[in-house]
Specification:
CATH architecture of chain B: Up-down Bundle
Number of strands of chain A: 2
Number of domains of chain B: 1
Largest interface: A-B, 26 and 33 residues
CATH superfamily of chain B: Transmembrane di-heme cytochromes, Chain C
Distance between the termini of chain B: 14 Å
Shape of chain A: rod-shaped
Strand content of chain B: under 5%
CATH topology of chain B: Fumarate Reductase Cytochrome B subunit
Order of helices and strands of chain A: EEH
Helix content of chain A: 40-55%
Number of strands of chain B: 2
Radius of gyration of chain A: 20 Å
Shape of chain B: elongated
Strand order of the largest sheet of chain A: 1-2
Number of helices of chain A: 1
Largest sheet of chain B: 2 strands, antiparallel
Structural class of chain B: mainly alpha
Number of helices of chain B: 7
Radius of gyration of chain B: 21 Å
Largest sheet of chain A: 2 strands, antiparallel
Oligomer: heterodimer
C-alpha cells in the first residue's frame, strides 16, 4: 500500500503529487473501528452519570 | 455561553408542567455549525467523489466552498475568543479526573474538547494548504501561477490537503455516530433547537462548571 502519489517529471525525477487515494478505505475503516470500539466499551462498562 | 452565567435555575424548580429550557447554543452558533457541516460535506464530496469514479466539474464548487468555510472559521474564531468563553472548550485537570471519578462535565466533556481540538487543527491545515493551492488555478480574481513553489513543495502542500480530507472522513463518521447515539440525543437536539431541558442540564452537567442560563 502506497502512502503517497508520485509522478515523473520531464527530467525523469520522481515528483510528489499528494496522498495516495488508496488510503481512503483505511480512513473509513478507522472510523468504523472507533465506532465499534466505543459501542462495545459502552455495552460492557456500566455507565456512571458523567454526561458522556 | 457560560460566561454569561447568571443562572436562576433554582428559581424554576416548581414551574409545573412546562419544560424549563436551558440555553446551550445561540442561533448564530447553530447556524455556524450547520454552515460548516454543509461546507465540509460539500468539500469532501467534490474532492472524493471524482476519485471514486463520479466525474463532474468539481473544482469551482470546491474552492468557492473553501472560501465560504474560511470566512465562517474567521467569524467563529473572533466570536469564540471575544464574545464567548473560549476556556469552556479547553481540557483541564478536572476533565481528566472525571474519567475515573465519574463526575459531570462542564458545557463540554473531555471527548468533545479533544474532538474540537483535532477538527480545529485539521481544518486550519486544510484551509492553509487550500489557500496556497488557489494560486494554481485561474479565478475571476487572479491568474494561476504554478511556479510559486517548487514541484516538491507543491507536493507536500497537496499531501497535507489530501491527508486532511482523508482524516475528515474518519472524523465525520465518528461525529455522526455520537450524534445518533440515544444517550447523546439531548446534545444533538440542542444543535437544532438551541436548548436542553433543565432535567437534562442537571442530569448531564455540573452547574458549577457550566453556569448556564434559561431561555427567555
Amino acid at each position: 500500500m502506497e502512502l503517497f502519489r508520485y509522478a515523473t517529471s520531464v527530467y525523469g525525477d520522481k515528483v510528489l503529487l499528494g496522498a495516495s487515494w488508496d488510503l481512503l478505505q483505511w480512513f473509513v475503516a478507522i472510523g468504523v473501528a472507533a465506532i465499534l470500539a466505543h459501542a462495545i466499551f459502552k455495552f460492557i462498562v456500566p455507565p456512571h452519570n458523567s454526561g458522556t | 455561553m457560560s460566561s454569561h452565567a447568571a443562572t436562576n435555575a433554582n428559581s424554576v424548580a416548581s414551574t409545573g408542567q412546562a419544560v424549563v429550557k436551558i440555553e446551550r447554543h445561540k442561533l448564530v452558533d447553530r447556524l455556524y455549525h450547520w454552515v460548516m457541516a454543509i461546507c465540509i460535506l460539500t468539500l469532501l464530496a467534490t474532492s472524493l467523489l471524482p476519485i471514486v469514479g463520479w466525474k463532474f466539474a468539481w473544482l469551482t464548487i470546491h474552492w468557492i466552498t473553501g472560501l465560504v468555510m474560511t470566512a465562517g472559521l474567521i467569524f467563529h474564531i473572533i466570536r469564540a475568543l471575544f464574545f464567548q468563553d473560549p476556556m469552556s472548550m479547553v481540557a483541564d485537570t478536572k476533565d481528566v479526573a472525571n474519567l475515573t471519578a465519574g463526575g459531570r462535565p462542564g458545557k463540554y466533556n473531555l471527548a468533545q474538547k479533544l474532538y474540537h481540538l483535532a477538527i480545529a487543527v485539521l481544518i486550519l491545515c486544510g484551509i492553509a494548504s487550500g489557500l496556497l493551492m488557489l494560486r494554481k488555478i485561474d479565478t475571476p480574481f487572479w491568474e494561476r501561477n504554478a511556479y510559486w513553489f517548487s514541484d516538491q513543495t507543491w507536493g507536500i502542500i497537496y499531501a497535507i490537503h489530501d491527508f486532511v480530507a482523508l482524516s475528515l472522513v474518519t472524523m465525520i463518521i465518528i461525529h455522526i455516530y455520537f450524534a445518533l447515539r440515544p444517550d447523546e440525543w439531548h446534545l444533538t437536539r440542542s444543535m437544532f433547537r438551541g436548548w436542553i431541558s433543565r432535567k437534562e442540564y442537571l442530569d448531564h452537567f455540573d452547574p458549577k462548571r457550566w453556569k448556564a442560563r434559561e431561555e427567555p
